[in-house]
Design brief:
The chain is an alpha+beta fold and about 375 residues long. The chain folds into 3 domains: about 120 residues, Acyl-CoA dehydrogenase/oxidase, N-terminal domain (Butyryl-Coa Dehydrogenase, subunit A, domain 1, Orthogonal Bundle), CATH 1.10.540; about 110 residues, Butyryl-CoA Dehydrogenase, subunit A, domain 2; about 150 residues, Butyryl-CoA Dehydrogenase, subunit A, domain 3, CATH 1.20.140. It is about 50% helix and about 15% strand. The protein has 10 helices and 10 strands. The strands form 3 sheets. It has a 4-stranded mixed β-sheet with strand order 1-4-5-8. A hairpin with a 2-residue loop joins strand 2 and strand 3. It starts with 7 loop residues before the first helix and ends with a helix.
Length: about 375
């Protein structure tokens, strides 16, 4: 990326995170992927670097910056390990952001310091077994009782679902009200009636913790509610709008990592007496990958710049997320093709990139949902 797109401070951040990623994250990336093990080493190291508080309230340990530096970090981490990048995006964008934006001072004082330091793992709990893209059709019920709520139901495909300490759960008080009946509740690990089950056997991001959560008459104090009753859906959607910029950056990182590996291999691998990079077919693959990487980067940084400037950015965030995620799939696929048989075995980085890339057009709103969002904005302009 041309230096002109980043400030001197952001260039320094990019260099520092690349060094951290190459030195500490990359060496264990293959191991934690194969073991399907969440890396608390990586997580706590990110906490010590202050990465989780980049956009959050300085009063509680954050640095109150914009989302552009978050994009820089998410991309650099995903270049070597998409699972570690995902942990970063979830902790900052899906757990930290709603707490920072919608929590009262007492709530922020209680939960933000742990989320920012990495002492506490955060989770955003929206998806249910019967409602993927149709988030308003939630069936997890928060029954109002004296002093709070009683929660019953389940959530699934929740990142940090089995290791989370601070869980932001979205439930409905009345299914007939759909999105108007939503409430956002903060649960803590160990609450009576809360159980979790790890989801294993995932195709990609295998070292990202993913779980199913069960709520059996979980008593949640009223003081644990974020915002007001009926505001839960807006909190959930605004959080996703913000986080999609980070997921676009994660996809961009996977695409860039795939291109990096493909370029390196194409220059080294020889066939028919010459490097395969000399063949026009391979050059076209590399050119197509590079175009998609650069277009993804421009879209992603545009969305980040608009948000940081306080301008409308939701359409651009959806464009960046949809395009970058599909670019990641394309670039990882082409990288495997360039590697040939060597790209089809676990010892190859591009095999992992190929598997990791495939989730990006699915989670945080499918590519189809992003196209709906984009079209609605176009038709309203």
């Amino acid at each position: 990326m041309p230096d002109i797109m980043l400030t001197e401070e952001e260039l320094m951040l990019k260099s520092a995170i690349r060094d951290f990623a190459e030195r500490e994250v990359a060496p264990r990336a293959m191991e934690i992927d194969q073991e399907e093990r969440f890396s608390f080493e990586n997580f706590h190291a990110m906490g010590k670097l202050g990465l989780f508080g980049m956009t959050l309230d300085p009063k509680y340990g954050g640095s109150a910056g914009g989302i552009k530096p978050v994009v820089v970090v998410a991309e650099e981490l995903a270049r070597v390990c998409a699972s570690t990048s995902n942990a970063f995006v979830v902790q900052t964008g899906l757990a930290g952001y709603p707490m920072n934006q919608f929590g009262n001072e007492k709530q922020k004082a209680r939960w933000l310091p742990g989320l920012i330091s990495g002492e506490k793992v955060g989770a955003y709990c929206l998806t249910e077994p019967g409602n993927g893209s149709d988030a308003a059709a939630a069936s997890t019920i928060a029954k109002k009782v004296s002093g709070g709520y009683v929660l019953n139901g389940s959530k699934t495909f929740i990142t940090h679902g089995t290791i989370g300490d601070v869980l932001i759960v979205f439930a409905t008080m009345d299914m007939a009200l759909k999105h108007r009946g939503f409430v956002a509740l903060v649960l803590e690990k160990g609450m009576k009636g809360l159980t979790t089950q790890k989801i294993t056997g995932k195709m990609g991001i295998r070292s990202s913790d993913t779980g199913t959560m069960f709520f059996d008459n979980v008593e949640v104090p009223e003081e644990n509610r974020l915002g007001e009753e009926g505001q839960g859906f807006r909190i959930a959607m605004q959080t996703l709008d913000n986080s999609r910029v980070g997921i676009a950056a994660q996809a961009l990182g996977i695409a860039q990592g795939s291109l990096d590996e493909a370029l390196k291999y194409a220059k080294q691998r020889r066939a028919f007496g010459q490097a395969i990079a000399d063949f026009q077919a391979i050059q076209f693959y590399l050119a197509d990958m590079a175009m998609r990487v650069e277009a993804s980067r421009l879209l992603t940084y545009q969305a980040a710049a608009l948000k940081d400037a306080g301008q409308p950015y939701v359409k651009q965030a959806s464009m960046a997320k949809a395009y970058a995620s599909e670019a990641a799939v394309f670039c990882a696929d082409r990288a495997v093709q360039i590697f040939g048989g060597y790209g089809y075995i676990r010892e190859s980085k591009v095999e992992r990139f190929y598997r990791d890339a495939r989730i990006t057009p699915i989670y945080e709103g499918t590519s189809e949902i992003q196209r709906i969002v984009i079209a609605r904005h176009l038709l309203q302009e």
